[in-house]
Amino acid sequence: MPESPEVDSLGGFLRSHAVGRRVRTVDLVEFRALKTRDRPLRELVARTVSGVRRFGKHLVLDTDGPSLLVSFGRAGWALWSDGSDRDESAGPDAPPVIARIGFDDAELAVTDAGDWLSLGLSVVDDATMVPAIAKLGADPLSDAFTPEVLEGIVVGRRKRLKALLQEQESLAGIGNAYSDEILFAARLPPLVQAVALDEEERERLYAAIREVLGTAFEARRDVPPAELKAAKVAAMAVHGRAGEACPDCGGTVLDVPGSKGTAQYCPEHQTRGVPLPE
């Protein structure tokens, strides 16, 4: 799943490559992806891209007319190709293309590699009015995200901490991988209810959110889109590393029970050395 550090990097790439280009053609390959059936992609034709904005795990391509909201969902992504800079991920093993936007000398293709379609496209006049954007919670790296804001999110919530970190209405842009990394850095168990955290643990959680995401944003900033997934995987301390040694203590990283191998933790650091019961 693309998360805010990768989507932010993609947004920066598109600002450099797409802004100022005029849309010549559009091709909607998978019609289920279009969420605004009364606003077809052809409304973008002959429009010039004027900016790219990120909201959590969503990107908005603004033009001198309507905007295109791309909600990447579970496995969506984008491929770029032009005469001088071709995205090497657009090969025979590339995920299915959902839609193509053609410029004079370049193409932006949005894809979805999931078992079920999760990517969504919307042609809108004001992206901030779309429910997926309007309901987003605080951006964890914004100045508005303070320890007091986190307290308001956590205190009294009888929801497992890992799930709460991924709740987009509370914190925008954190997904499965970075929630694992944040909890590892904070030395907190993934399945504890948020209401159980004391003040010191909440302070550790806040610091870990800022540190893990801040480091990831900086590290991904200039990585080409085709290399972002590999860069993200390589940077993980525990996520996706079940059976491997914890980089801090050498103990064995385990799968979070019930996650079907999609989430991981270190028992030594996060559950006082006792593995979570299956």
UniProtKB/TrEMBL annotation:
Molecular function GO terms recorded: 8-oxo-7,8-dihydroguanine DNA N-glycosylase activity; damaged DNA binding; DNA-(apurinic or apyrimidinic site) endonuclease activity; lyase activity; zinc ion binding
The residue ranges of the Formamidopyrimidine-DNA glycosylase catalytic domain are: 2-76
Q: Which GO terms describe its biological process?
A: base-excision repair
Family named by the database record: Belongs to the FPG family.
Keywords (A to Z) from UniProt = DNA damage, DNA repair, DNA-binding, Glycosidase, Hydrolase, Lyase, Multifunctional enzyme
Xref: PROSITE patterns: FPG_CAT
Reactions performed catalytically: Hydrolysis of DNA containing ring-opened 7-methylguanine residues, releasing 2,6-diamino-4-hydroxy-5-(N-methyl)formamidopyrimidine
Quote the protein name from its UniProt record.
Answer: Fpg/Nei family DNA glycosylase
- Its domain of life? Bacteria
InterPro entries membership:
FPG_cat (IPR012319), FPG_N (IPR035937), H2TH_FPG (IPR015886), Ribosomal_uS13-like_H2TH (IPR010979)
